[in-house]
């Protein structure tokens, strides 16, 4: 089996779970004996591009000239069984789907966000969930609200790209929806159910969990949609020290909220931005990992990391989080509505029930998110596409 994995990497200066997930998946496939040929572009390269190439950047989401030329050469030389597309923006463009089909190569795409419809990919703007562009031929609301990179001009290009490539997206041979929420988004977009499969991302097994620490860990980009303000509002509804410690890790525009809470309360510690070893140590010291976004977060890596290391999860019931955490006695933790009252009510049960939920979290990871479960499923998807292509 030979697979080309196409992905436009986000800027490495911005921590991106998607980059990590793609790299991890490539490693798992290679360990399973699949020949993987990465076809990747990085947004970091834009700064070093010559002026002539930079001049073409505005049209690259619609048609990446260099990407199509280079991909065509690669497909002709390697003759892969499948092209697996992740993120095509901005340097690859969805046109890689057409290029692959022109060479008789079927296309599988893992959908990491909502960008078939939404210019930002988040279904979120100005502090609230937004579906204003759903059902529209052209996403005028995205242009009006500068949803892509805060620019009306760039938002116009992205909205145009989505309109132009609506038939392109509908030609993808198999969509991998990370959760049932993404599957519903694609169905609403018009993708037939027989071209959808739900397969989440996973992480390598870190080994047997270490003993639980104490208290709660919140580790995320400190931006409005990640829910730091929501968490602190809920936390302040309990007496100082009654819930154990709350550790906050990360950086961003809401850093001042973390610093203020740490200055006000003895049970809140702001750890600042942490590297990977720092996050591992912070998670080890905690019993419950908190993931409380207010946007429809697709598949937060922080939850995968928590479950794999045997840490309970307290999450908001948005996006893919209910799919990840589960329900009933096998649930990896607790779900709360994204409001302060509901989250405040969930904090004491999470503190008390962390030991049992941590065991369930590790078991849920092993059953649903372990490479031994997910990699064979991905290879099976590739094989099915390859068989159809050669009939």
Q: Widest sheet: strand order? A: 2-1-3-4-7-8
Mean pLDDT across the residues is 91
The percent range for helix content is: 40-55%
Number of helices: 15
Q: What is the total tally of β strands?
A: 14
**Radius of gyration, Cα only, in angstroms?**
21 Å
Unreliable segments of 5+ consecutive residues? 52-56
Largest sheet data: 6 strands, parallel
Fraction in beta strands? 15-25%
Verbal overview:
Helix 3 (65-78) packs parallel to helix 4. The longest helix has 29 residues, at 340-368. The chain is of the alpha/beta class and 391 residues long. A six-stranded parallel β-sheet has the order 2-1-3-4-7-8, sandwiched between helices. The chain has a six-stranded parallel β-sheet with strand order 11-10-9-12-13-14, sandwiched between helices. It has a two-stranded antiparallel ribbon with strand order 5-6. The model is unreliable at 52-56 (pLDDT under 50). The protein has 15 helices and 14 strands. The chain has helices at residues 17-31, 51-55, 65-78, 95-102, 140-144, 152-164, 166-169, 180-189, 228-235, 255-264, 276-284, 301-308, 321-325, 340-368, 371-389; strands spanning 2-9, 35-42, 82-85, 107-111, 124-125, 128-129, 174-177, 196-198, 216-219, 246-249, 268-272, 288-291, 312-316, 333-336. It holds the Pfam family Glyco_trans_1_4.
């Amino acid at each position: 089996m030979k697979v080309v994995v196409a992905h436009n990497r986000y800027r490495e200066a911005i921590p991106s779970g998607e980059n990590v997930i793609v790299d991890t998946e490539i490693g798992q496939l290679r360990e399973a004996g699949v020949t993987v040929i990465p076809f990747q572009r990085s947004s970091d390269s834009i700064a070093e591009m010559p002026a002539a190439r930079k001049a073409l950047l505005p049209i690259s989401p619609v048609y990446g000239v260099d990407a199509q030329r280079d991909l065509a050469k690669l497909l002709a030389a390697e003759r892969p069984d499948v092209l697996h597309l992740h993120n095509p923006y901005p340097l690859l463009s969805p046109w890689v789907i057409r290029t692959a089909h022109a060479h008789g190569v079927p296309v599988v795409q893992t959908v990491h966000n909502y960008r078939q419809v939404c210019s930002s990919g988040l279904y979120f703007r100005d502090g609230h969930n937004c579906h204003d562009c759903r059902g529209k031929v052209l996403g005028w609301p995205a242009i009006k609200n500068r949803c892509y990179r805060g620019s009306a001009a760039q938002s116009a290009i992205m909205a145009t790209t989505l309109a132009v490539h609506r038939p392109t997206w509908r030609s993808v041979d198999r969509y991998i929806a990370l959760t049932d929420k993404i599957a519903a988004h694609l169905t609403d977009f018009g993708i037939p159910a027989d071209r959808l499969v739900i397969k989440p991302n996973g992480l390598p097994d870190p080994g047997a969990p270490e003993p639980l620490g104490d208290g709660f860990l919140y580790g995320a980009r400190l931006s409005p949609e990640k829910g730091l303000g929501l968490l602190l509002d809920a936390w302040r509804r309990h007496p100082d020290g009654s819930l154990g410690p709350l550790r906050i890790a990360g950086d961003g525009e809401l850093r001042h909220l973390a610093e203020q809470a740490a200055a006000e309360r003895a049970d809140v510690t702001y750890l600042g931005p942490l590297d990977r070893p720092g996050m591992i140590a912070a998670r080890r010291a905690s019993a419950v990992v908190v993931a409380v976004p207010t946007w429809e977060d697709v598949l937060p890596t922080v939850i995968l990391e928590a479950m794999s290391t045997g840490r309970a999860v307290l999450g908001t019931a948005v996006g893919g989080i209910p799919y990840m955490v589960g329900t009933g006695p096998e649930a990896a933790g607790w779900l709360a509505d994204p409001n302060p009252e509901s989250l405040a009510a969930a904090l004491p049960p999470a503190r008390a029930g962390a030991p049992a939920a941590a065991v369930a979290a590790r078991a849920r990871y092993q059953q649903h998110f372990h490479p031994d479960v997910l990699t064979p499923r991905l290879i099976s998807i590739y094989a099915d596409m390859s068989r159809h292509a050669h009939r």
